[in-house]
Amino acid sequence: MGLDAIFDTTTEVLGKSIDLRAKNHGFISANLANADTPGYLPASLSFEGELRKTLRGGGDTATTHPRHIPLAGVATGLHRLQGKVVESSANLPGKDGNGVELDEEMGRMVENQILYNASIQLLAQKFDVVKYAIKGGS
Amino acid sequence: MDFFSAMDISSSALSAERTRMNLISSNLANASSTRTSEGGPYRRRDAVFSALPLSGRFQSGLGRLGQPVLKQVAVAQIVEDSAPPRLQYEPSHPDANADGYVALPNVNVMEEMVDMISATRAYEANITAVQAAKSMAMKTLELGK
To answer: What domain count does chain A have?
Structure first.
């Protein structure tokens, strides 16, 4: 039995999600820090759609024939997933050209934090199950 | 590590907002100072912020590849407001001109109060970001306990 049998895809996905959410927190912090900087446009990391696509289809390479060998499995697709940095053009930039909306960023920060904590909690439960099995159920 | 760079960014903003707060305090304190060492009434001061790429080898490498990088904030310069001084008729004042008008600083107390609230809120937002980064990092350390 390889390690893959112990740590399944869910563990990989949760790890990736934690990684990307930690990165996203950096971007949100930068937006909050530059809330008063003239000409600054907020940036954020977008990865949810890509993650969903990776889980469903195993990466960017499409197989158009049933006998095609997919170039990358889910695990490789996950490794490659970096997220996309989106520099949002402000819908209503202020007089100084700054596009940061403080309340919006705060909301996104809290959302990101909650989902991060959720991933950590799920991962901890995953590990608990493995630990339980190792200990022989005692 | 991501959380430490997030904290670096937030603390750069905290120090920038503190500089801004000091300038607002200075403006409010000198709202009626008619004499300065440079001569003439006090002039309102304001900080100009600029976004700088976060220092560090990884971030500068990303920048060279044309990737967007995290940006911290710094006070680029402190500018004096060029608006003309307020003139108030007060012939008995020692600094009054020949027509009896005193040149008072171009500080608008209401404006300064609004700026102060805005600086306070921005400071609080950055504190919250630091706390969030800290709690996320602590939560991660609990993994495997």
So the answer is: 1
> What mean pLDDT is reported for chain B?
89
For range B42-54, the mean pLDDT: 92
Task: List the 43-72 stretch of A: residues with Cβ below 8 A of B.
Answer: 43
Please indicate, yes or no, if residue A64 is contained in any of the structural domains.
no
On whether any CB of chain B is under 8 Å from the CB of A124, the answer is yes
Cβ–Cβ below 8 Å for B128 and A106: yes
**A58 assigned to some structural domain:** no
User: Following DSSP, what letter does each residue of B88-102 receive, concatenated?
Assistant: EE-TTSTT--TTSEE
- Is there a contact between B6 and A35 if contact means CB atoms under 8 Å apart? no
Residue A124 falls inside a structural domain = yes
- Give me the domain span that covers residue A18: 7-47+82-132
Contact A38 B48 (CB under 8 A): yes
Domain contains A52: no
> B49 CB near a chain A CB, below 8 Å?
yes
Place of tokens 């100072």: B33
Tens digits of per-residue pLDDT, B79-96? 999 999 999 999 999 999
Hey, how many other C-beta atoms are within 10 angstroms of the C-beta on A121? 14
State how far the alpha carbon of A30 is from the alpha carbons of A64, B38, B83, in Å: 42, 38, 33
